[in-house]
Design a protein that fits this description.
Length: 331
């Protein structure tokens, strides 16, 4: 695996609606490896590799955007007030370092007189300003910040980063495209935008592409931490997760069966995933036009939507192998 490329993708600034820097890294890596690379009106980066006459058109989608906080005001002492962009768990945010697209950095704090659970409205960001005027000269209303991009190695096989959801899937899809040779199928690799705020990019991309089949690549939760609240069977280090269902879709049985058959034939480690919450771009693809057979390949990930999302590189490799196999052999 190309660890420098993975690092570059993981550390790009790219909140929902501002994914251009991520798209730039991916587009440069794709040069010479696709028949076309285009950006649509929404900002989706779409790489197409043509197949043979009579082959299927298969859309793969991995989203580039990262959950964020958007500035809605500043108080007289220069502390920024924010709203969420995507699924922010307010209780996990205090004392995280954050970065804005213009390079301004800050620290998240929380009102100290809150009774009960924190909400996003209880959070503020300290960017070192002493007044409202100074704060709004450093950032503008509507500017978004993300948890400070960084990559931390944990042991021999594991990596932690704030934007694993879903940059690790972007890396999986990119590596599969880079390794793909001739295929009977036409492959449309979509690096989508605004997934975290409603699967928006995949919705429009799927309508335009009009695929015969759709596959999302995304992270999924695990149940392998002490006293996990949700009893999930997915574990780090046990391979790619083949999704059965989540809150956005019930995967097409034939797609699930094909993934599991390919995994057996190629000796790719896989585990089944049933996720009782969340969703992926596959939920949007499945419902486009008259309906599309759809499924998802998931990367097991601990601590999703936190500043320390953690994956196992052996699972990442299994997801790359399964994605490439599906590109080459899907009937």
């Amino acid at each position: 695996m190309n660890m420098q490329l993975l690092h570059d993708i993981l550390t790009c600034y790219g909140p929902s609606g501002s994914e251009g820097r991520v798209a730039g890294v991916i587009a440069r890596a794709l040069e010479g490896h696709a028949d076309s690379v285009t950006t649509d009106v929404m900002g989706n980066l779409i790489a197409v590799k043509k197949g043979k006459a009579g082959g299927k058109r298969i859309m793969f989608s991995a989203h580039m955007d990262h959950i964020a906080l958007a500035v809605i005001d500043a108080d007289k002492n220069g502390f920024l007030r924010v709203c969420n962009v995507g699924g922010i768990y307010a209780g996990e945010m205090p004392y995280n370092h954050v970065a804005f697209g213009n390079g301004v950095c800050g620290v998240i704090g929380a009102d100290e007189d809150v009774k009960g659970d924190l909400t996003v409205s209880d959070l503020y960001i300290d960017i070192g300003a002493a007044s409202r005027e100074e704060a709004l000269s450093m950032v503008a209303l509507g500017d978004m910040c993300v948890v400070m991009p960084r990559v931390t190695k944990l042991g021999e096989h594991r990596l932690s980063a704030p934007a694993m959801d879903d940059r690790i899937a972007c890396y999986v899809l990119l590596e599969a495209m880079l390794a793909l040779g001739e295929t009977d199928n036409e492959i449309a690799a979509v690096f989508s935008v605004q997934e975290e705020v409603g699967l928006r990019g995949a919705t429009t991309a799927a309508y335009t592409i009009n695929p015969d089949m759709g596959i999302a690549i995304d992270v999924t939760g695990t149940g392998d931490v002490p006293k996990a609240k949700t009893k999930l069977a997915v574990e780090l280090g046990k391979g790619a997760a083949v999704k059965i269902m989540d809150r956005s879709l019930i995967c097409t049985p034939a797609v699930v069966e094909r993934m599991e058959k390919l995994a057996r034939e190629k000796s790719i480690p896989v585990q089944r995933e049933v996720l009782p919450y969340g969703g992926t771009d596959a939920g949007a693809i499945q419902k486009t036009r008259g309906g599309v057979p759809s499924g998802a390949i998931s990367i097991p990930c601990r601590y999703i939507h936190s500043g320390a999302e953690t994956v196992d590189l052996r699972d990442v490799k299994a997801c790359i192998d399964l994605t490439k196999a599906f590109m080459e052999h899907s009937a």
